[in-house]
């Protein structure tokens, strides 16, 4: 075991969701087999392993929410549920021979850059290792966020987050409080409503909701896609193209979203007849400012007689009594938090100590920033999949992940071309220029001009989450590594010096 704990690998991948498994597949396709996948849980799947709440499903069409190199002609629905997506990821691990690289229950507890050896020292719950390159694929939707509510510890019933569902508690016949109105909440509410005695929704801000064009994919369609792959590719291409054409309305011309807003209002009016409730569920910001949600069952569930909508956030808990910010009180036997994740303050950043002895969290104290969404200055040979400003508001994150895998592959090729023991460190000026350009583009977007406060924004009010462009634009920007944006690090000559101060070799622009 001791020998295994001191193992050195060329690449260590953190996480086994879409990003981690995708990175592992790409490594094998590049001929790299000296790598490990460090997974804190006991199975692959990432957020699709952790989120098992009632009604959990994807809001991106299945044929677009899958890897281009691993199509699945047997998706059962237009929008597949959590069990099918998790099963797909398990098949990825099997099909591409990734099991031998997986180390389960190996949560990364900390890692530090060794400037003398030019590698990362990684401490995990399963032992220690060193790696030339680390790829962080922990994802932004991995660590649940529960707000600090005064008195929550006095609540006598069950408290759960949507991403940590309590399957041992039977909620049938109970009084349940749902906190939040995001993507998970609009799936949980209609799933619970028929069986609970009373459901109270604490809503700070109503979401915009559009119809969900979901249906079963027929056996004939599945046969067609399996027998004639071109039809499957055409379906994926159509889904992608439609979303690419929508991007300009989000990023340059928010006023063009008026028609979409009209359709959302019509959807609400059709399902909710009570004018008072309809007014409470009507957003006061431009559609698209927060993520647009899709559901055919959310509004009808809220209109049922055993559901109450409280138009204020949860402020305090007094035993089994929940008190909203407007003073409204509700009794509950269980509380479900649909309050999102640590997106702009990723916990992994506190565990990564770079070349200057500071953590990534410390470097990002004024906001996340990474060159092309992948690399941060002072953290050599450390790449993030789904890093800062790589999120999307209307399309599939798998497209962004695959673009970043292209960048990862070329990064490793550049290390080989440069030869020997080598590392690349993003130039601060390159990171600043990239981030400045993104934030300039962000000023025109609906996320900045739409009049809402969303989880896309960090504590300073900056959007460090979303990509202000098309997926094809991001793919072009990450197709190759520009060495002019990096400093090349080589091992120091002579006796060991300061382990936190790497030598730097300039690369001509």
From TrEMBL:
Signal peptide: none annotated. It comes from the Bacteria. GO terms for molecular function: flavin adenine dinucleotide binding; N,N-dimethylaniline monooxygenase activity; NADP binding. Its cofactor is FAD. Residues 490-509 are annotated as: Disordered. Gene3D superfamilies: FAD/NAD(P)-binding domain. The keyword Cell wall biogenesis/degradation does not apply. Keywords: FAD, Flavoprotein, Monooxygenase, NADP, Oxidoreductase. It holds the Pfam family FMO-like. Belongs to the FAD-binding monooxygenase family. Catalyzes a Baeyer-Villiger oxidation reaction, i.e. the insertion of an oxygen atom into a carbon-carbon bond adjacent to a carbonyl, which converts ketones to esters or lactones using NADPH and/or NADH as an electron donor. Thus, can convert bicyclo[3.2.0]hept-2-en-6-one into the oxidative lactone products 2-oxabicyclo[3.3.0]oct-6-en-3-one and 3-oxabicyclo[3.3.0]oct-6-en-2-one. Is also able to catalyze the sulfoxidation of methyl phenyl sulfide (thioanisole). This is Baeyer-Villiger monooxygenase.
């Amino acid at each position: 075991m001791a020998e295994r704990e001191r193992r050195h690998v060329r690449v260590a991948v953190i996480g086994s969701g879409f990003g981690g498994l995708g990175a592992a597949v790409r490594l094998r396709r590049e001929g790299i087999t000296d790598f490990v996948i460090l997974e804190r849980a006991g199975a692959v799947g990432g957020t699709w392993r952790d989120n098992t709440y009632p009604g959990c499903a994807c809001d991106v069409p299945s044929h677009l929410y899958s890897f281009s190199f691993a199509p699945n002609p047997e998706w059962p629905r237009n929008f597949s549920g959590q069990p099918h997506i998790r099963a797909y990821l398990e098949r990825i691990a099997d099909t591409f021979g990734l099991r031998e690289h997986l180390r389960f229950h190996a949560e990364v507890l900390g890692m530090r850059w060794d400037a003398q050896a030019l590698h990362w020292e990684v401490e995990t719950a399963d032992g220690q290792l060193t790696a030339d390159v680390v790829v962080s694929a922990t994802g932004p939707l991995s660590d649940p966020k529960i707000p600090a509510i005064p008195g929550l510890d006095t609540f006598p019933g069950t408290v759960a987050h949507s991403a940590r569902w309590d399957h041992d508690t039977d909620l049938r016949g109970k009084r349940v409080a749902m906190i939040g109105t995001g993507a998970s909440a609009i799936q949980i509410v209609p799933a619970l409503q028929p069986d609970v005695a009373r459901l109270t929704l604490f809503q700070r801000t109503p979401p915009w909701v559009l119809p969900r064009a979901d249906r079963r994919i027929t056996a004939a369609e599945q046969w067609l896609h399996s027998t004639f792959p071109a039809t499957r590719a055409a379906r994926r291409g159509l889904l992608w193209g439609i979303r690419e054409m929508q991007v300009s309305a989000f990023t340059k011309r928010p006023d063009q979203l008026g028609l979409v807003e009209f359709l959302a209002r019509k959807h609400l009016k059709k399902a909710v007849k009570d004018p008072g409730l309809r007014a409470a569920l009507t957003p006061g910001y431009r559609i698209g400012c927060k993520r647009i949600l899709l559901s055919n069952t959310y509004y009808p569930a809220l209109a049922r007689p055993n559901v109450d909508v409280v138009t204020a956030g949860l402020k305090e808990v007094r035993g089994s009594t929940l008190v909203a910010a407007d003073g409204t009180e509700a009794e509950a036997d269980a509380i479900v938090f649909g309050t999102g994740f640590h997106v702009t303050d990723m916990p992994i950043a506190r565990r990564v100590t770079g070349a200057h002895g500071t953590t990534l969290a410390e470097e990002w104290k004024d906001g996340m920033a990474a060159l092309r969404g992948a690399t941060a200055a002072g953290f050599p040979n450390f790449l993030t999949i789904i890093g800062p400003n790589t999120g999307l508001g209307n399309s599939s994150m798998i497209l962004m992940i695959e673009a970043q895998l292209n960048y990862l592959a070329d990064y490793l090729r550049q290390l080989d071309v440069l030869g020997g023991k080598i590392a690349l460190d993003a130039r601060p000026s390159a990171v600043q220029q990239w981030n400045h350009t993104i934030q300039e583009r962000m000023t025109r977007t609906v996320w900045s001009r739409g009049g809402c406060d969303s989880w896309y924004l960090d504590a300073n009010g900056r959007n460090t989450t979303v990509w202000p462009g098309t997926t094809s634009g991001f793919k072009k920007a990450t197709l190759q590594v520009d060495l002019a944006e990096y400093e090349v690090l080589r091992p120091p000559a002579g006796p060991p010096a300061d382990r936190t101060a790497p030598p730097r070799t300039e690369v001509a622009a």
